[in-house]
Each structure stands twice: as structure tokens, then as C-alpha cells.
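Course assignment 3, question 2. Fill in each field.
Student: A.L.
Task: Predict the tertiary structure for the chain below.
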Amino acid sequence: MLIHCLRIINQVDNYELRTVKFHSGANFIVDTDASKQHNKVGKTTFLKLIDVALGARDRRLIYFDSETNSLEANLEKYIRSNKSMVELTLVDNLSNPKTTHILKVSLYKNGPYFIDGKRLNQNDYREKLNLFLFDNDKNTPRFRQLIHSFVRISMSGDTNTFLRNIPSGTKSDYRSVYNFLFNISDPSLDQERGNIIKHLAAVKEAMKQFSQIQNSQSSTQTMQVISSLKNEKKLLTHELDDIVSQDTFEKNRQKLTDARTEYTNLADQIAILEYRLRINKKLILDTQKDANQATNNDLTKDFFKEMKTLLPNISKSFDELVTFNKQLFLNKIKYIEQLNVDLKSRIKLLKDRQDRLTKNNQDLLSLVATDKLDEYTELSAQLAKRNQEIIQQEQLLNSLNKFEKKKESLESQLTLLNRKSNETNSVFSKKIEQFNIFFTRFAEKINGERPMLTYNPDVNQFPLAIKDLNGTSTGTRKSLIAAYDFAYQEFAKSENKQIPNFVVHDVMENIEGVNLKTTINIANETGTQYIVALLKEKLDSSGFSKEDQSKYELIKLSSSNRIFDDYRKYRPHVQ
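Answer field:
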């Protein structure tokens, strides 16, 4: 798909502020001002308008410079008061289009999105673009992950930086994108792998936090602790059995056994309930702590701001959100406190039963030798404590086992995916070899160098790299990006792959002279729409004739002809 036309429309009065028609090959956004005025005429703003029409998230960047943290207040007011909209027309052929799509994006805050007259939310808008421009009906990779390889605005950094063009992109994201672009493998495998890696990291971190809080070790060590505790319990039970004489025990065996069994069962139940009571008390303290932190949580504020942006009809304020969150915490605390009341009541009932059992069996207890009574009581207390410790460790082991099983399951899934990737990645060598036929040839034409793109099949590494480029200058690096972009356009043609047949650049200032002319010649030869911002003085010094400049010119800007200047009213002076 190619760009046919860009229009800026004021919807209040349906006034066309700008209409710019594109052509095949080189498309120059020309800054005609003297050197001291550069970067103040709107070259980058024009390129950003294309990016916004292609679903860029932050339309505010049209009038806000994130690098200098400065707001162009007049332009922001102009866009808002006139309800300015950018319209971008995409076609499959400039001279005889069979397929046309008209994209419209309002530039003011919370303005709507349209494709071919149908209003869409931003996510659906991007999914449609993914289908139109990449024939990607699965939406994997996502459209904005892919389009960064075709829309390059404000690029900087070392030679390989332009390959890392996804904001906050993970290695799995990049592998998904490049496997898609180079037809190497199913990008959904890379996306799934990325999700599993994130999940696995979260599980490992949860295990670590859990172990720290519980002061526990591995499940194997916990099993050993449980085994030791059970041995201690067994010894204590034997010691208790030995306290009562054999004759007395034989005469009252069943009655004594039943009484002691019931007493022990009651003690076990009490131990379980007391343990749950302690856990609940800790949970209340943790909830109170979370409640106190909630109001100062930047993440909560950021979440609210994002939701307000996505759902502008939300009528609730942030303070109401905070109040709502506080009430959730209070409700949780009340619920746990009520559970504790019930637990205490049950514990009291069980202890009352213990007391009654003791009173009702005084005759049996008198059978215990007088000098053994204190020992009997102490041993009983120790036995109850061991039971409680065993319960606690078994619950801990259960939690650790769940973590381990989840971790093992994710690691197994990851191993399976890696095996599938190894099987499907067998084609990468041929694909990259085909790409390098174009890449090396174009780079050699532009700057005399012979770079090679390489692919790393290791899923834990970044997928692409460029080799044999030691000592390149900044200008060489910029021309390298151009060689890469033209090479990919030709590679896609050889693969019959549907992609945007345009490249948007704001990085050409360091390419000049013969290198610049060669770059433009390649753009024209390949038919790639090469949309670049350039200084007129750069074109003059590089030997472009007036005829060529006029032929390639898309729009001419200056301090007296800025992109959003409206001569009917006033000029907002966009930078």
C-alpha cells in the first residue's frame, strides 16, 4: 500500500488547511529557511501527522515536545477550537488504484478514529491497519510493533539501534516482528513464548517472596522438617504411653484410650484454629498496610489517568476511586475480623469440651503416678505443639508444591515452544541470504561499504545484528538505515509479501552529496515512497538541480509557511 494524499481538515467549518499529494519514489519535506531557523517550521510535525494517522498512541506529540518538555500552546488551542483532523488516503496503486482506504484521526484529545467512514476505537483501528498494510488478520505481531520498521522519526544511537525500534519491546516481541517480516516462522510462537517467559518470571518472583515471608527453604527441605517433626511426635506419644502403669492401663485401657484420643483430637483442632487465627491477624495487618499505601500509589494514579483516556465518559474522580479502594480494604478487614470472631468462638467451645473431659475423667487421671503428673502435662503440651508445627509445615509444603508444579509446567511449555521454533527456524538462512543480496548491494552503492545482516536463532538473544561495520561515521549509519529499508522493500517483493510500500524518515540530515543522491536514486528505482525531511541548502550542496528538487518536492515549509499556519485567522507557529 502507498500513501496517496494527506489532508488537514478543520471540522468546525470543514476547511481544508492542507492538502498534500504524494508520488512514487522520493518525497521531500523541504525546509527552505536559513540555518538559524531550522527545526522551527514543522518538518517533524508533518511526519508525526503521518504517524498519528497510522495509529500512534499520543496525538498530543503534535503540539508537545517530549525532549524539551515544552508545549506549543497556540497550536494546541488552534487544534482544539477548530477540531482539526488528519486524513490519510492509502491506495494499492497511485495511477490506477483498485483498493483505497481513507484514514481519519481527530487531533484533539479524545477525538474519534475513522476508517472508510466507519468510527472505530483505537485498538480496532490498529487491527484494521494490520490487515490492510500487512495482511495480518491474526494481529500478531501487533500493528504498532510492525509499523516502527517503516516509520522512523527522531532516530538516534549506534549502528544497530534502528533495529531496536519498538518502545519497551522485549526480545520475544522483536523475534515475533522479524520472524513475521522475514517469513521465518509463525510469530504467534514468539508471542506465546514471550507470554510464558513473563509468567514464569512472575511465578519465580512469587516463590522467592513467599519463601522470604515464610522463612522457608525448598520443598525437599520442608519434607525433611516434616519427617523429623513426625518422629518427635512419635517419641512423645510413646513417652506419654509409658507414664501410666501397665496394670492400671490394662484395667482401663479402652476408657483411658478413648479419653486421651478425644483430648488429643480436641487439641489438634484447637491448634489448627489457632494457626488460622494467627494467619488472619497477619492478613489484617498486611491489608491495613496496603490500604495506607493505596492513596499514595503512583501506579493507581497512572492507571486512573490511562482509564480516563481510554474511557472518557467515566464520571468518577480520582478521589472517588481512592475512597472506593479504601472501602474495599475496610470491607476485607471487617470480613476477616468476623472470621476471627467465629474462630475464637469455636476455639472456646473446643477448650470447654477439653475442660469437661478432664473433669469427667478425674478418676482416670488419678491413675497417673503423682510424680508423673507434671511430666504428663509438659509432654502433652509438647505433643500439641508438634502437631501444630506439622500442620504449618504441611500447608507450607502444599504451597511450595503448587509453585513448583506451575514452574515446571511453564518450563515444559517453554521447552516445547523452543523445540518448535528450532524446527521452523530452519528457513532463516535462506531468507537472510536473500535479503543480503539487496542490502549489501544498496549499501555499497550508497557509501561503498558491504554490511551483512545476520540472524541469531537463539530465542534468548536479540534476533538481528549487522556485521562488518567497524568505524562507520554517523552519516554512514544514517545511510545504512536507508540501504536496509530499500533492501527490505525489494525482499518483500521477492517474497510477494504485503507490506507498506513507503518509508518515513526524519534522520537524513547527516547524509549529503553523492551518498544522498544515490539514496534518492535507489528510492526512485525501487518505487518505494521515501518520505524524508531535508534542508534546501542540503539539497543544493548535494548537487540536486532545481528541476529535480521540484520533481521530488512533497511540501515546502518555512518560517512564513508553517504546517498549521491558517492565514484566515492567525498562525499558531508550530515548531
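Instructor remarks: The chain has 18 helices and 15 strands. Residues 155-159, 366-371 have pLDDT under 50 and may be disordered.
Grade: pending
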